[in-house]
Amino acid sequence: MLPYSDDRDFPEIESRSVKKPVVTVRELPEPLLDSDEAASIMKIHPKTLQKLARKGIVRGVHIGKLWRFRLSEIERWIDHQMAS
């Protein structure tokens, strides 16, 4: 039988710790809003928002039959409207 030993006998064991990657908020992708959510923030009808997106006035992503919008893009449009 081996004599009892503690962690001091194996210093490499002490340094082994599971480190989880640190993810900051800036690294997370910005969630996409659907037409209803984005239009609600803009206080316009979803169809109006879709027309603005088709014309390139508001940037959005057309995925199949659905439109998706970044909140930052919606806020940019609102800021532009207030400045006009």
From TrEMBL:
<protein>
    <submittedName>
        <fullName>Excisionase family DNA binding protein</fullName>
    </submittedName>
</protein>
<dbReference type="InterPro" id="IPR041657">
    <property type="entry name" value="HTH_17"/>
</dbReference>
<dbReference type="InterPro" id="IPR010093">
    <property type="entry name" value="SinI_DNA-bd"/>
</dbReference>
<dbReference type="Pfam" id="PF12728">
    <property type="entry name" value="HTH_17"/>
</dbReference>
<feature type="domain" description="Helix-turn-helix">
    <location>
        <begin position="32"/>
        <end position="81"/>
    </location>
</feature>
<dbReference type="GO" id="GO:0003677">
    <property type="term" value="F:DNA binding"/>
</dbReference>
<dbReference type="InterPro" id="IPR009061">
    <property type="entry name" value="DNA-bd_dom_put_sf"/>
</dbReference>
